Amino acid sequence: MNVLQLPPSLRRAILHTPGIPWAASNNVRPGWRALSQSSASNAAAESPPLTPDQPGLITLSPSTLNNYEISIPPTTPQLKYAHHYCASAAPLFLYSAATFRSLPPSPHPEVAFLGRSNVGKSSLLNALFGRPNARNAHVSKRPGRTRTMNGWGVTGGLPLGAAPKEGQREAVWKRFPRGGCVVVDMPGYGGGSHEEWGKEILKYLQQRKQLRRTFVLVDAEHGLKRSDISLLMHLRSHGISHQIVLSKVDKLIYPGAKPPGPGRLSADLLRLKDLCAGIRQTLNEEAGDGKEHLLDILCASSEKGLDERSKSRRIGVDEVRWAVLSACGLECDDHGQRKTARPPQDITVLDEDES
After folding, report:
1. CA 319 – CA 275 distance, rounded (Å)
2. What number is the average pLDDT over the span 214-226?
3. Distance CA 203, CA 200 (A)
4. What span, in angstroms and rounded, lies between the C-alpha atoms of 270 and 276?
5. Distance linking the first and last C-alpha atoms of the chain
6. Where do the structural domains in the chain lie, given as residue ranges?
7. Residue of 319, 249, 233 whose CA lies nearest to 283
8. pTM for the predicted model, two decimal places
9. How far apart are CA 331 and CA 292, in angstroms?
10. In CATH, what number does 62-328 get?
């Protein structure tokens, strides 16, 4: 038996098991025996010996944090690309509309973020823009702080068009570059929100041609509410592209002041996976059609990051950024090289008096 060809964990277990005459094996050279003994002793001093049947701990990665059933988990270069695209420049405030008819015309793809009042939607958007401590999207502990549909332009670092000449007025969105996308912060629904906001939200979801995907935020600590289920069933029945984002996920996997240890993190990630499975089961049962509908569920936190060396990278936010870019046709390839944006063929630009 050549001990050096065995996996390190199994090798250490054999080295520390009395009664196994591994050193007498003819397949191990004498000069390597001392090296193997020294390496095993150092490894044993650094960490307790592992046994071959001990299960490995789950570490944090896009595939363990999020539940991908439709999409392929993004690669590290793709996440870096998404981070740079969304955080390289401050977002450009494009419009604020109280009703659907007051929305401006636009040739740019849009994504909308929806959620119950005080679900952490505005905080997540500020983190998505790379400015978690800024107030681009209004943040408040009082439910219903966001009262209008607010459009923010993400340029990906592309230059804006020429500013209007002195004395001329021009809509800001007309200077917005091709190759960018618009993120819409929608009013919250549920407790603390006005009833009429729901009507305008539904008009936007069903009639806005620029809309590419709707991200529905669900509080990870409290789970699905009846209003969440009703909205998700409406999106499904009308064929509106949507994706669930569990917000405030740090409450589950990072509840303390210090980052969790490997064992605690592994257990919490398994618990988070069970939570996502329960959400998916609830929605399938609510649909009542006997079909299993596949759905990606993203998990994110606008408050904390597990990497102490880069505290600006919040948990799961880069994955949300990647989902936004993918929905708008602005993603990159597996190596982080930018693709040519898909032409918005189904977007109709209206005159301002028609909107």
Report:
1. 19
2. 94
3. 5
4. 10
5. 78
6. 62-328
7. 233
8. 0.75
9. 28
10. 3.40.50.300
